[in-house]
Design a protein that fits this description.
two-stranded antiparallel sheet
Length: about 80
């Protein structure tokens, strides 16, 4: 589970897996599930690509729903189509 924090997040969609989102104020919580496990991808629509939301990785679970340590995971934001 991760959180996107800040104004201007307009939508989130999964590139791989299933996605569930919940908005509370300027925070969007995102849960992505992928079976079998692998690299996750999502697209975040924002008002201004020069002011992306802060990303907080909150939880990672394995295929048995057991929580895993957060070390070794990264979240990277990149503009689509090379636009900046």
């Amino acid at each position: 589970m991760l959180e996107l924090v800040g104004p201007g997040t307009r939508g989130v969609r999964a590139v791989t897996g299933l996605i569930y989102t919940h908005r509370a104020g300027d925070t969007v919580r995102v849960v992505i599930m992928l079976d079998p496990p692998g690299k996750l991808g999502l697209v975040i629509r924002v008002d201004d690509i020069h002011r992306p939301p802060a990303v907080r990785l909150r939880e990672v679970a394995d295929d048995r729903n057991a929580l895993r340590p957060l070390s070794g995971y990264e979240v990277r934001l990149e503009p689509l189509g090379g636009s900046r």
